[in-house]
Amino acid sequence: MKAKHIFTITLATALMSSCGVLKNYNRNDVVNINTDNIYGDAQSGDSLGLGDLKWRDIFTDPTLQSLIEKALVQNTDIKNTDLQLQEIQYALKASKLAFIPSMYFTPQGNVSKMYDPYQRSQYSTMTQGNNKTFGLPVTFGWQNVNFFALRNQKKGAEINREQLHNAKQAVQAALVANVASLYYSLCMLDEQKSLTEKTRDNWALYLEKQRLLMEAGQANTAAVASIEATYYSICQGVLSLDENIRIMENALCTLLGESNAKISRNALSTFQAPAIVTTGAPISILSRRPDVRGAELALASAFYDSNKAKSAFFPSLTLSSTGTFTNSFGQSVINPGMMIGSAIASLTQPIFANGALRAQYKVSKKEMEIAANNFQQAVVEAGNEVNTAMHELKIAEEQKDLINKQVSSLETALSATEKLYAMSSMNYLNVITAQNSLLQAQMSQISNRMDAINATIDLYQALGGGTE
């Protein structure tokens, strides 16, 4: 009876003091994150933001959408992440099954015969026949089970699964952004090549005119040679753009998991900015951005590791029962056999383990503090990246109006210069200069469009990479 009371008191004490190790992770209980003014002066929107949109709502080009969908199916990183998710599912299932008792069936048998080398008659009855014994035991029980540790181990496995889901989101968001970036870079190179070819054609015409003037004695060899050098330099630029286009196409094919192929695409000017380009509520960073979410999952994992380390201070329970059908009872053999049952229960409470348990618990607490600091830093970095992307988008939009006005003015200047050249003896170099100025401004126009697209892609990633 006394032993029963001791067991009851020990178990009750363990249950009363286990409240802490059975708590679920709650961000507000572990770390204090202040999201006020997290985006700085780029704060905009109070509910929905770019991070709340799906990638199809941001990248509306049908050709680009087809490429992204193909990448999400064929990309090797995506495939491997799916396989890792399947692996972690098995680990989680194993951690859940740890609560279930184990069961073993270990059949055994033995055949023995007594042999007398002296052939003594008084032992003849003992040496006749074989002694055949068998046992069919089934063992059922828990071995050294700490239910608090098992519970926190299961929670940790669930966090690992969430971390892998989060990793897949990070891979997907990066893949969508990279495919979009390469696609629009190809569109930009197409337009740059078109303008460079126009520049080449203009200089080819100018070179032809100067050669005619030289034949008429109105231009010298030095001037013609200089124009030729400029013309050949522009021709090299066209070839360089062709090379860059091939490099970009191959890079995009690599993301698609395909061999090098020609990538069909539309004009850069077809890009339509999403209707919503605000940041949205700050909490969207915490719930959707993969690196921030990953830092919080690491904090949650450290929280359950700390609980698991604390669980080591509580007793471990061992329960075992065995049922055996056998015909072996000591020195005798009984046929048919009989059932033998046994049960064992024990409780192991750590008292002194050379300070190892306490040291392990203190280490786990420090690891949780480190994880909390990393989480806070991830939030700060995320806010700053959103701020940077919003400013890039704002500057690109402001420059767009100025560049458009510049192009309009240069178009007027070129038209006026061509009319003056037609009506007077003005040098054709003035026309070429006006054409080059316009083409350079149009190049700036293309770069500005690409800056706005890149800023939109950066903001898409900075706000979590969409809702998928």
Can you give a write-up of this model?
With 468 residues, the protein is α+β, with helices and mostly antiparallel strands. The chain has a single domain (2-27, 59-380), classed as Outer membrane efflux proteins (OEP), CATH 1.20.1600. Helix content is 64%, strand content 12%. The chain is built from 12 helices and 5 strands. It has helices at 2-16, 27-30, 55-58, 62-74, 76-97, 124-127, 147-215, 221-256, 283-288, 290-311, 356-423, 428-462; strands at residues 102-105, 108-112, 131-145, 316-329, 332-348. Strands 1, 2, 3, 4 and 5 form a 5-stranded antiparallel β-sheet that branches. The longest helix has 69 residues, at 147-215. The protein is elongated and about 145 Å long. The two termini are 61 Å apart. The model has no long low-confidence stretch (mean pLDDT 77).
Please specify the SSE layout and strand pairing.
Layout: H1 2-16, H2 27-30, H3 55-58, H4 62-74, H5 76-97, E1 102-105, E2 108-112, H6 124-127, E3 131-145, H7 147-215, H8 221-256, H9 283-288, H10 290-311, E4 316-329, E5 332-348, H11 356-423, H12 428-462
Antiparallel strand pairs: 1-3, 2-3, 3-4, 4-5
Work out the count of structural domains.
1
Number of strands: 5
Task: Note the total helix count.
Answer: 12
**Uncertain residue segments:** none
CATH fold-level assignment:
Outer membrane efflux proteins (OEP)
CATH architecture: Up-down Bundle
Compact overview of the structure:
This protein is an alpha+beta fold.
Descriptive tags:
single chain; 468 residues; alpha+beta; Outer membrane efflux proteins (OEP); 5-stranded antiparallel β-sheet; 12 helices; 5 strands; 12% strand; elongated
